[in-house]
Amino acid sequence: INLNTRFSCDGTASMPIRCSHYHISPIGAVDAIRESCNSFLYSTFRSILNSRKTSAEGFGVWRDYVLSFGFGTDLGADLMNTGKGNVPSGEYYNRIYGVNRWNSLTVRSLSIGQGELGVTPLQSANYSAIIANRGHYFRPHVVKEIAEQEINRKFTSKIQTLVTPENVEPVIDGMQMVVENTNASVFMRIPEVVMCGKTGTVQNPHGKDHSAFMAFAPKDEPKIAISVYIENSGFGATFAAPVASLLVEKYLKGEIAQSRKWVETRMLEINLINQN
């Protein structure tokens, strides 16, 4: 997969995973991030699993990359009850379906972050920090320093993932386009700040979907990474993204610009608990 890679997408007619967005086709990586193209994500996932002799071997490659981002593991933060999430193993699917009896089609939901894949809000924020850092992270921690004492070195040691800065830059470009060149940009753009983010809509079979958004800013020399998850509030761009942008703006600028006060007012006054 590279910047010249293109995959076709037939929108709601796409198989085996439907894409609810209408956009250009075939589509490349940067535009796929902006458009949240499920077809591109699945096709990429399938390519990885098909890159080895067996699907299980290819799945192992995919899983190693995912684990390197801190998913499916305890991040070792100085916080309690942060959770490990879940990244299923090939052995798990062997037990469910049998050896050599499953492939990318069988586990296709993983390609769009569903199925047996579980991610905590802290892991999502850490993932945003990894992208902001162009491929590495430090263990999340609350304590920055203690007077006349050294904090545990595990919090100041750089952890490198399996991706390089060259791998990450196109992802960052796509995330910038999410904030600046989509229908929801009016809720996300911060004056004089280049923020990069990604919306997410978490499907909920028991009610209204959950709204999710991860971001970092500024694009160059970033100072904040964030993840926002709002239950039963719909699309990621509707609530999680505006809330995240307000938090980022307040952190970086110290106040909300007058031109964005209407976004702040809208978020403060909406009642998401007692919805009609």
Low-confidence stretches: none
CATH class of one domain: Alpha Beta
CATH topology (fold) name of one domain: Beta-lactamase
Strand content: 5-15%
Q: What overall form do the CA principal axes indicate?
A: globular
**Largest β-sheet summary:** 3 strands, antiparallel
In the CATH hierarchy, what is the superfamily of one domain? DD-peptidase/beta-lactamase superfamily
User: How does the helix and strand content classify structurally?
Assistant: alpha+beta
The H-and-E topology, N to C, reads as HHHHHEEHHEEEHH
Number of H- or I-type helical stretches: 9
Q: Overview of this structure, please?
A:
The chain has 276 residues and is α+β, with helices and mostly antiparallel strands. The protein has a domain at 167-276: Beta-lactamase (3-Layer(aba) Sandwich), CATH 3.40.710.10. 35% of the residues lie in helices and 9% in strands. It is built from 9 helices and 5 strands. The strands form 2 sheets. The chain has a 3-stranded antiparallel beta sheet, with helices on both faces. Strands 1-2 form a two-stranded antiparallel sheet. A hairpin with a 7-residue loop joins strand 3 (196-202) and strand 4. Helix 1 (29-35) packs parallel to helix 6 (165-180). The protein is globular. The termini are far apart. The mean pLDDT is 94.
